[in-house]
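A quick aside before the break. I want you to see a complete sequence-to-structure record at least once, exactly as it would be stored in a machine-readable document. Don't worry about memorizing anything.
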Amino acid sequence: SSVSEAEMSRIRAICGSQLIKLAQEPVFKTLITADFFHKIARLIIDPVTNVRDIIIKKLHNGLKSSRLSFHYMAIFALIGLDSNRERKSRVKKIYSNIIKQIRLQDAREQQSRLQKEQNQQQQSGATTTNRPRILPEMCLPYAISLIGHNVKIDSLKDDNKVKQIK
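That is the input. The structure line, written in tokens, reads:
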């Protein structure tokens, strides 16, 4: 018995959704290897548009709730390979909104940290060390990795593919 294309796309969507769900749980985050990360990323350029939409929605929800690591934003870089302009613009808006959210959250944390440090300095005279900041730009190495390992790129001599990647 063979599996139909529709069933295979449904299986890909369910598996990708479940991997994203696992990646949101602190206990399972270490189990999501680079290989699984790349498999999730490939689903955003799946041949079936419903699979793409499901994965975009799951990524958006996970990133918006801050349950997914920021490097999952890099997966959105592959949406440049999508031929649907509406989907591209929707993902750009999602990406922009997530970046705004991260920047606002970072600004609040910095402000809160400064106030705590000032209070501690006034009470004890000691200074505290700064915690490293997480900025959206830090997902760029992941995006470059995803683009570099893209299976749709078979030759850099094809000008159309190179323009599409740029």
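Two observations worth writing down. DSSP finds six helices and no strands in the chain. The CA atoms of residues 86 and 92 lie 10 Å apart. We'll return to this after the break.
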